[in-house]
Amino acid sequence: MSTVLIKNVGLMLSGQVDKPILEADSILIDDGLIQKVGSGLSAPEGATVIDAKGCALTPGLIDSHCHVVLGDWTPRQLMVNFLDSSLHGGVTTSISAGEVHLPGRPKDPLGAKSLAIVAAKSWATVRPGGMKVLGGSLILEKGLTEQDIEECFQAGVRVVGEVGLGSVKEPPEATEMVSWARKRGMTVMMHTGGTSIPGSSVVGAEQIIAVNPSVASHINGGPTAVSLEGAKAIIDQSDAAIEIVQCGNVRRAAEVARYINETKQWGRVIFGNDAPSGTGVVTLGILRNMALVASLGGVAPELTVAMASGNTAALYGLNRGVIAEGREADLVCMDTPIGSPGKDVLQALAEGDTPGVSLILIDGKVVVAKSRNTPPPMRAAQVAA
C-alpha cells in the first residue's frame, strides 16, 4: 500500500473519552495503519497527500447494531446496497446483532450454529464499498450446548446476537449460555425493551441484570423502551455497555444520555442503528445519534465521537475506531454542514445538525471522495493533485 499524508486538519477528534481532542493537524499512514499523529508532518516522496482544508478528522464510525444477512441486501426492507449507503454516512464498520431476517431462518441448534459460522466466514471476506462487517452473530436457541459455543468460537464467531430473539428467553437458561460465551471472550448482546419481531420478547432491567450480557442492546427501545427507572437500574446495577440506537425511542435516548452525563459514564455508551428494521434503513443514523445526544442529551459533542467509534472498538476488540499510532487507518473527514449556525463540526452537533462528510478512508485507502448522503460540508477535504 502507498503512504498517505493527511494535512491541514482543523480539528482532530481521537475517538477516546479520556482525550477526545488531539493537538495535531496531520496524520501519516503507511500500509493501512496510522504511523504518526502530529503537527506539520511532511510527506515522504511518492506519498498521496490529502488536504483536509481545515475540516475535522474523526475515526471511522462503527454501527454497533446492524441486522445484516448475507451480502449487501436486506430482505426486511427488500433493499440492496444499504451498507454501501451507510458507508456514505461515515460508517466504516458494522457489527451484526444477528442474521435474524434471513428468510426461513433455522431455529434448531444445528441450524443456528451453521448460520452463524457461514455468516462469520462470509463477512470476513466481503466488504461492501470497502466497509468492514463483523458478521455471524449466534442467536441462542434451546438445545445449544457449551460444545456448540466452542465450535462456533473456533470457526470465527465472536458475537452472540441479541439474546431474546431466539427461543432462549428466560434468565436461568440464558445466563448459562451467556457464561459459556463470555468465558471464551465473546461479546454478548441482549435485547432490551419491547418486542421488535415475531418471536422476540419484552426484556426489562431485571432480566438484563440477571443474565449479565456485554451489551444492553437498544436501551432506548426497539421499538419501545424500558422505563427511565429501568434504564437507570441497568446502568447502576450492571456493567453492560449501554447502546443507544437510531431506530428507537427518541425521548428515552435523550434521558439516558443525560443520566450518563450526570454520572460521567461516557465510556459505556455505544451507538447503533438497529436497522434494517420496520423504521427502515437510516444511512445517516450514527451521525444522527451523535447530534441527538450532543444537542438533547447534554453530552459534549467530542465525546459523542468516542461513543460512535472508540467505545465500540474497545468492546469488540477491534484495532480501529481511534486515531492513534498503530491503529487501522479508517478515517472520516467531516465538517459543519453548509447553512448550520455551528462554525465547526462540534458546534454543529451541539445544534443538532448532521455533519457533512467529504472524504472517507478505510485502511488508508480513499473509498468515498464525496458523500452522496450527507449535506455538503463547509470545508471539504481533497486529494492533492
**Named CATH topology of the largest domain:** TIM Barrel
Helical percentage: 25-40%
CATH architecture type of the largest domain? Alpha-Beta Barrel
Return Rg in Å. 20 Å
Number of strands: 22
Q: For the largest beta sheet, what order do the strands appear in spatially?
A: 3-2-7-19-20-21
What distance lies between the first and last C-alpha atoms, to the nearest angstrom?
19 Å
Count of alpha and pi helical runs: 11
- Structural class of the helices, strands and pairings? alpha/beta
What is the CATH class of the largest domain? Alpha Beta
Beta strand %: 15-25%
CATH superfamily of the largest domain: Metal-dependent hydrolases
Unreliable segments of 5+ consecutive residues:
none
Major beta sheet summary:
6 strands, mixed
The pLDDT mean sits at: 95
Q: Overall 3D geometry?
A: globular
Oligomeric composition of the shown chains: single chain
Domain count:
2
Q: What is the strand and helix layout of this fold?
A:
Blueprint (H helix, E strand, L loop, with lengths): L3 E4 L3 E3 L7 E2 L3 E5 L2 E6 L9 E4 L4 E4 L1 E6 L6 E2 L4 E2 L1 H6 L3 E6 L12 H15 L8 E3 L2 E2 L7 H9 L4 E5 L7 H13 L3 E4 L14 H7 L3 E2 L11 H10 L3 E5 L4 H14 L5 E4 L12 H11 L5 H7 L2 H7 L14 E5 L9 H7 L4 E7 L2 E4 L13 E2 L2
Question: Would you kindly provide a written description of the structure presented here, covering whatever features stand out?
Answer:
With 385 residues, this protein is an alpha/beta fold. It has eleven helices and 22 strands. The strands form five sheets. A six-stranded mixed beta sheet has the order 3-2-7-19-20-21. A six-stranded parallel beta sheet has the order 13-14-15-16-17-18, sandwiched between helices. Strands 5-4-1-6-22 form a five-stranded mixed beta sheet, with no helix packed on it. The protein is globular, with a radius of gyration of 20 Å. The two termini are 19 Å apart.
